[in-house]
Design a protein that fits this description.
Strand content: 15-25%
Number of domains: 2
Radius of gyration: 17 Å
InterPro entries: Acyl_CoA_acyltransferase, UCP017998
Strand order of the largest sheet: 1-2-3-4-5-6-8-7
Number of helices: 6
Order of helices and strands: HEEEEEHEHHEEHH
Distance between the termini: 7 Å
Number of strands: 8
Shape: globular
Length: 205
């Protein structure tokens, strides 16, 4: 299917409000540091779900990206999958998303152990949403960079996505040769087992 980017459309949609898994979520939008940047507090039931920083991109040199942080774990577990998939619909090919995972215990432990990012709880959701390239941004001292974040990047085209998928499958196969035992390893193992049997589904063309 054709996939085009329109992050301004995402900003407008969130400002008007959406309904996700039975919850009414509305975005409180403020301008960011640059004319292409917006800060959006997503709120439901009078409480903040998370903050999104949306950068629309600037010319040919700075691509669009979305960052999610200040995440409330009470709501995140039921909203993460549909919200990430919604954002992907508005990101252009090659678009990037960063998601803070400090409050996501399973993801944090799996990444600290060095598991492939796409086998973590959050990474697997991002992979199924369309991201095919990942990087774990971990800053031990925090500071201006904020908490640890998982970066996902959409492929620029189907050829790149297929190439990335080949690497993902190889890493998943390699993970299956290891040993573990606790619940975090078992969940990652189950994801790897599923991935090696799954074909690549392109969302760009």
């Amino acid at each position: 299917m054709m996939h085009v980017g329109n992050l301004m459309g995402l900003v407008d949609l969130l400002a008007h409000g959406i309904r996700v898994n039975g919850l009414d979520v509305v975005g409180l939008v403020n301008k960011g540091r640059f004319r292409e940047e917006f800060n959006i507090d997503l709120v439901t039931c009078g409480r903040r779900v998370l903050t999104l920083k949306v950068f629309l991109g600037r010319g040919p040199y700075y691509g669009p990206w979305v960052e999610a942080f200040n995440i409330n774990p009470i709501f995140w577990a039921s909203l993460d999958d549909p919200l990430i998939k919604l954002i992907v619909k508005y990101l252009a090919p090659g678009g990037v998303m960063y998601i803070e995972y400090l409050t996501d215990e399973e993801t944090r432990i799996q990444l600290q152990r060095g598991y492939p990012p796409f086998l973590s709880r959050l990474g697997y959701i991002m992979l199924n949403a369309g991201f095919t390239w990942f990087k774990d941004w971990y800053y031990p001292e925090g500071w201006l960079e904020g908490g640890p974040k998982l970066e996902g990047q959409l492929p620029v085209n189907c050829s790149e996505g297929l190439r990335h998928w080949g690497g993902i499958r190889e890493d998943a196969l390699r993970f299956l040769t290891g040993t573990g035992g606790d619940e975090y390893w078992v969940k990652a193992f189950e994801r790897a087992s599923h991935l090696v049997k799954k074909g690549y589904e392109c969302i760009t063309q």
